[in-house]
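Internal ticket #5521
Category: modeling
Description: The requester needs a full-assembly model to guide mutagenesis choices. All entity lines are attached below as received. Residue total reported by intake: 623.
Assigned to: D.W.
Attached entities:
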Amino acid sequence: MPKFKFLDDVAIADAAFIAYGKTLEELFESCALATFEVMVATKGVKPEQKEEIMIKDQNLDDLLFDFISELIYLKDVRKIFFSKFDLLIKKNKDYKLTGTVWGEKIDYKKQEIKRDVKAITYHLLEIKKSGNSWKAQVILDT
Amino acid sequence: MQTKKIEEHIWEIPVTEKEGMRVPARIIASEKIMKEMDQGVYNQITNVACLPGIQNYAYCMPDGHWGYGFPIGGVAAFDLKEGIISPGGIGFDINCGVRSVRTNLSFDEVKPKLNELMDALFRLIPAGVGSTGFVKLNTERFKEIMIKGVDWCIQNGYGWEEDRERIEQGGRIPGANPDKVSQKSISRGMDQLGTLGSGNHYLELQVAQTDRVFHPEAAKVFGIDKPNQIFVMIHCGSRGFGHQIATDYLRVFTEAMRKYNIQILDKELACAPFNSPEGQDYYEAMLCAANSAFANRQVILHKIREAFSQVFHKSPLELGMHIVYDVAHNIAKIEEHLVNGVKKKVLVHRKGATRSFGPGHVDVPEFYRQIGQPVIVGGSMETSSYLLVGTQKAMEMTMGSTLHGSGRTMSRGAAKKKVRGYELMKSMEDRGISVRAVSMSGLAEEAGIAYKNISEVVEAVDQAGISRKVIELKPIGNIKG
């Protein structure tokens, strides 16, 4: 199963993708990787610097929105593209996401950089479980 | 969806077309543009027409296309008491806008030095992902910029006194409150002042087309006084600072919707009553981003003036580098408009749409009051851009609004499949457009084939009478983030 595929005809000025995962953690990791694939060829991004992440929300849509927003924020503040993600999502009353993300300093000489991502949107945002796997549709503002 | 023609170039979708529409929707377009219009626009503009407190109509301009929440090209005004404010009606890039600058130089003078000039501009103006500006700020100084906008730049040597009056609202919108922006948005945006960004943002060198002057009187006021004069255009916004403010408040508003029991048809249309603590907080934070975007374009202009000065060994003043105008095309502002024949203050959202105030309007600088407010319409990097002026008819028909650019018709992914960056660059160079791009794939995504025909969309607003063409500007150099 591919981790994600881009949808060319969904968001004309922006970037849309569907991401997949056998678990919720895998799904969120696929969404993160797709987000950075919009910005850079992630295969060329070395996982050499790490950041810890912790997010709590009442529902999955908001959890994904806040998780991707956090990565976009860290990209601008730390000047890092992320390419490796190790997450844990637990649900008690709320959803809680914790994890580590790895990446490399933004470098036009070393990386194949495409374009910036400004934000994740709620437009047509959807997270679904079908059978034994998870699927999410995401539109990014670029 | 059923549309009826109201008059030439103005179409209406009646309230009977969708349950919940409070006002009809109106699209400004020629018959051809209407036929080719993205179907998502009809759905999105009628969703906007359902929002509480909307006044007159939900409008879409001819460069309209599918966005998220509002369509790009969308305009909607709301009652200040009963109405809402929505980040989805402004966009993540708050006060994305365009600035046009004239010079005394002719194409013949620039041509032999074009490459040198492009290199200097590319060197002095940071572009692309992760770039940082030369202005070193701390939180206190950044907060000053949020309040003072262009005034801060002028006070700190990054602009001329006269620049102020050639920018929408003087480049400083009152009401900005830095206490309403998060620490996150401050740390995300603080080192980005004076950077171009990426995507469709650009810096362009252009030649004013002497044989394409449509309004000689306005062209003269714009400072067009010799054949083939060189112009500069800047297209960018509030960078990460604005993106973070929009992200923060979108989350606040998803909660506020439950609190105020507002029903919407698309989660991206999340909104809050304008007259609520959440609505007011966002408005005051949004204005911080708006003022910082004016400052961003000002600092970039400072560097452009420096680059020209280095290459042509004359001061920017000797080179006549006066701003023509600077417009915001992603913003919400309190303005006075006619609602059911009565003047009242409303909150006008423009998302990919430009203010188009007509002659005599008190908010148009005296300099331009006879001819109307300058409107700047940026084309794709392969095609022309246009300068226009606002009209009285825009005040009557579209709440003083018009188009903002050519409008995409093809997704970035689809464009990239059809065009390769290096080939496009070579083909543009062959056609006399010098290119500097930080990313070849980013360049391909912005290919001209991905956009509507700029002349057609400009013609539509000219024919509809909501702004009037002044002159066409042809690109000779493009710097892409």
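Resolution: model delivered.
Comment from assignee: Chain B touches chain A through 48 residues (CB under 8 Å).
Ticket closed.
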